[in-house]
Specification:
Low-confidence stretches: 93-103
CATH topology: Tumour Suppressor Smad4
CATH class: Mainly Beta
CATH architecture: Sandwich
Number of domains: 1
Strand order of the largest sheet: 2-1-3-4-7
Number of helices: 1
Structural class: alpha+beta
Length: about 140
């Protein structure tokens, strides 16, 4: 899927039939109202109110700068690869002098990436549960 961004704030949230519909509408139990927001001005930035990762790092209320090629996971189940031709990294070359592009991106990698994030989240929740259980 392709989601063009409009200048200003582009909210991500569930499919809603109203005047307040988010710019990017996703489905699923893990997508919350005003889940996260991608702000498009001179740069692209993202901040989140719910589970959102950029390159494996959890995003919070503080804005995170987005760059071409970043991997964004929203709600633990929606994977995006940022394609930004305005970014200076857009035409950079890798060690083999090949232009980095979406052609090098594989679906299997996305599945493994999401699985790794879900596994890390699950392990953290188990650890926190065991710690709280010991306090009782």
């Amino acid at each position: 899927m392709f989601f063009p961004l409009c200048p200003g704030q582009n909210w991500v949230g569930p499919v809603v039939c109203s005047n307040e519909s988010p710019a990017i509408q996703l489905t699923g139990m893990t997508i919350e109202n005003n889940h996260c927001c991608i702000e498009y001005s001179t740069d692209l930035k993202i901040f989140a109110n719910a589970e959102t990762y950029v390159n494996g790092q959890l995003v919070g209320q503080s804005q995170v700068l987005l760059r071409h090629g970043d991997r964004i996971v929203i709600g633990g189940s929606h994977f995006f690869h940022l394609h930004n031709p305005r970014d200076s990294q857009f035409n950079e070359k890798n060690a083999d002098n090949e232009v980095i592009s979406l052609n090098n991106f594989k679906f299997g990698f996305a599945v493994k990436f999401i699985f790794a994030i879900r596994l890390r989240t699950l392990k953290l929740r188990i650890t926190n549960f065991e710690k709280s259980k010991k306090r009782l």
